[in-house]
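To whoever picks this up:

The nightly regression suite flagged Thiolase as changed. Nothing in the input moved, so I suspect the structure step. Input below, exactly as stored in the fixture:
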Amino acid sequence: MQDIYIVGVGMTPFGKFRDKTIKDMTGEAVAAALSDARVTADRIDGAFFSNAVQGHMEGQHMIRGEIALREMGIQGIPVVNVENACASASTGFKLAVDFLKASNGDCCLAVGAEKMYSDDRALMFSAFDSGWDVSNSEEVAQRLADLGAGVEEPEGSKSPKPYSVFMDVYAGFARLHMKTFGTTQEQFAAVAAKNHAHSVHNPLAQYREAMSVDQVLAAPPITYPLTLPMCAPISDGAAAAVLCTGEGIKRLGLDPARAIKVKAAILRSGTDRPPEDYKNHLTRLAALEAYEQAGIGPEDISVAEVHDATAVGEVIQIENLGFVEFGEGGPASLRGETKIGGRIPVNPSGGLESKGHPVGATGIGQVFELVTQLRGEAGARQVEGAKNAIAENGGGLHGVEEAAACVTILGR
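Regenerated output under the current build:
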């Protein structure tokens, strides 16, 4: 089976852009990726376009990718639309890898784009309402509340303002983790403070102001134990990657020195399991499969980008990826093991909490950061000697875990 490489990446700034359309942001990211790869649009054999909420926000369903890509000359080839909640972009990336492995072409495009911010707050926050089983949403909400039973919510620790329903999801996960392992709100705050510090050096990040642990704890509450800086913002943005086979690199005359190998790309859906059975969390199982496919282990990873839609997510995912034992994610974060310069740098981009989270673009945004790191081009946020990198991207909720998760391993 052919080896697959990333030969070009591009990403827009993430943020709130009232004056930009999906087409605008898609065009910007794709143009940057093609330029980085030194490939023209007519050399692309297939494209995978990821988006989660344009149908909800704008009423554009069914052919989003064909519409967004045609004006930049990407037409007459297979264009596949991918929707898989917050894991949409990493799912599209995995499908692009599979497209090339199946010898359907030599050069393929994976792109994710999302325009989420709106002055209509009700419309904006309701975009997340179908990320779980809508046929029994009240039962799902109660099950999540029950996860944290026994963990007291201090008075005044819930926002009176609207927020995404998924903050309640993560709060349920957080309280269960606190009850099971003794994880503290301060440890979650340490994750957020670290990521906000990292984002200072990322010119594409939505927020670029450092915060201390005390500042994170003193910030406005969302829902206990989460405060505002612990949560990913609503974001607009796009990211793209150009992938090639080894033969495609030769055929197109590309520079192999800048190509980054895709060592593993795994996609799993969730399963029914008891909440306390962390060892069978879908991300844990996907990570084990990815490490086996790549022929390496967690000890070989230089840098990671994980799905920190809240700080709680990062604590859970560094445990799932095998960087620490279950229950040790919080203490390790407080000790500084996951900061740049620490034992295992996590989210040098600033993560979703600070870089931003345009859900249909997030997974390829992670790939953009890791390719930049592996090329040694990350500037002040560079992880020295980065050789192998891992990305974890999850989406939706089914049962007591994400509905879908992707784990991707890249290397020099």
